[in-house]
Amino acid sequence: MKNISKTGNNIEREVTIAFKDSKCRQTVVLNPKKSVEIMITEGPIKGTKSVVLTPSDSHKTRIDVVWNIKLAGFLGVFTGIVKRHIAKGTDEALARIAKAVE
User: Fold this and answer.
1) What pTM was computed for the model?
2) Predicted confidence (pLDDT) per residue in 19-50, tens digit
C-alpha cells in the first residue's frame, strides 16, 4: 500500500492486490469512531467497501463490513469467485478481531 495524498480525513492510495500483483487506486474516507468508506476507482476491481462501527449495550461495538465490487472488463466473469474469496477473508478477519478483544 502506498499513500499518495491526504487531505483531512480523505486519503488517496495505491494498493497492490494478490491478483497478479495488480494495482488498484482507492479513495478512503475516515469517519472517526463511525466508519471507513473505501472507493476503489481504478484497477481490475472497482466498487466500494464500507466498515461501519455501531456501539451497542454493555460497552460492545458491532463491526459491519459491506463489499460492493465487480471485476473490470473480461475479468467480470470471475466476480462471483472473487466475492466469495473476499467474504471468507473478511469473516475470518472479523473473527480474529472478536477473539482478540474477548
Assistant:
1) 0.83
2) 677 899 999 999 999 999 999 999 888 999 99
Which residue, 20, 38, 25, 26, is CA-closest to 75? 20
Closest CA relative to residue 39, chosen from 31, 53, 50, 54 = 50
Q: What is the DSSP string of 72-83?
A: -GGGGGGHHHHH
Q: Where are the beta strands (DSSP E) in 17-56?
A: 23-31, 35-42, 45-56
- The domain total for the chain is 1
Quick check: helix, strand or coil at residue 101?
A: helix
Structural domain that includes position 24: 2-101
| pLDDT for the residue numbered 19 | 65
Provide the pairing of β-strand 10-16 with 2-7. Answer: antiparallel
